[in-house]
Amino acid sequence: MKKEVLIVGGSSMVGSRFTELNRDHFTFEVPTENELNLLDMQSVNRVVGNSPVSTVVNFAAFTNVGKAEEEKGNKDGLAYKLNAKAVEGLARACKDSGKRLVHISTEYVFDGMKKHGLYKESDKQSPINWYGRTKYDGEELVQGSGCAYTIARISMPYRARFPAKPDLARTFLSMLRSGQEISGCIDVINTPTLIDDLTHGLKLVIDHEIDGIIHLSSEDGISPFLFAKAITEKFGLDGNLVKPIAFNVFCEGRPAPLLKNSGLDTSKFQGLFGRGILHTVNGGLENFKQQMLY
Predict the structure, then answer these.
(1) What's the topology of domain 3-225+239-293?
(2) Chain centroid to CA 96: how far?
(3) How far, CA to CA in Å, does 202 sit from each of 141, 143, 208?
(4) pLDDT tens sequence across 168-193
(5) CA dist., res. 198 & res. 215, Å (int)
(6) Helix (H) or strand (E) holding 207
(7) What is the pLDDT of residues 61-86, one digit of tens each?
(8) Which of 42, 57, 241, 261 has its CA 20 to 30 A from that of 181?
(9) Backbone angles phi, psi at 97, to 5 degrees
């Protein structure tokens, strides 16, 4: 019998792909934004409380880092309401109805200052911008709610097709195909992740009801400069269009502080489920290429 799962944020870039790839594995309940208003606790309690599912997965979030920074310090702003207050309400509704909450979070709960290696689940959180703070508070509220939970942190998700929202891989590819130059940071570590890998990993996390925090991202890290270079190599484009830039120069004039090291360590996931489910950056880009070409 297939596990029943309630999807919150089913129209999002990650959530829509998760449901698309796992329709044969789970029985999904995917309420629309009109059916489930996350900012209305009566709506949340009604939908979650009346649902027969055992697990709720929350993909909904305010993810625009720059726009979130415009609301810095405002707990009545939309970013904080969606990423913290609504998450608290969702967690309480799950506790009251005996459901497990799987909450999607981000690398932005860290400060990006780690000198060696990628961020582990146990590393100290210290967000440096308002988006990160809202997501950090959301995590804390889930953990303090008393519900059964998994917090799955993801990093720089990308997919072959999703017109409603750009991502780093498709943005770089579009610019390079049109002959535009790209300034890629050479002294930054990211773990950009093909969303298909995230969905496969998340499926296992849900099936096995993994407690606590777990990281889902590519197996290794890469700089934006080398990521853009890898895209030129995969798609036969001009690598000379990719220009190096230092992180401190790139950050000048940006609306929000950015992370120099935003990479997530997936050793915990690999220890549980083995390697090869979450691919390397190169492996993810190879699958991305195949999907883009066919």
Answers:
(1) Rossmann fold (3.40.50)
(2) 27
(3) 21, 19, 10
(4) 999 999 999 999 999 999 999 999 99
(5) 10
(6) helix 195-207
(7) 999 999 999 999 999 999 999 999 99
(8) 261
(9) -105, 5
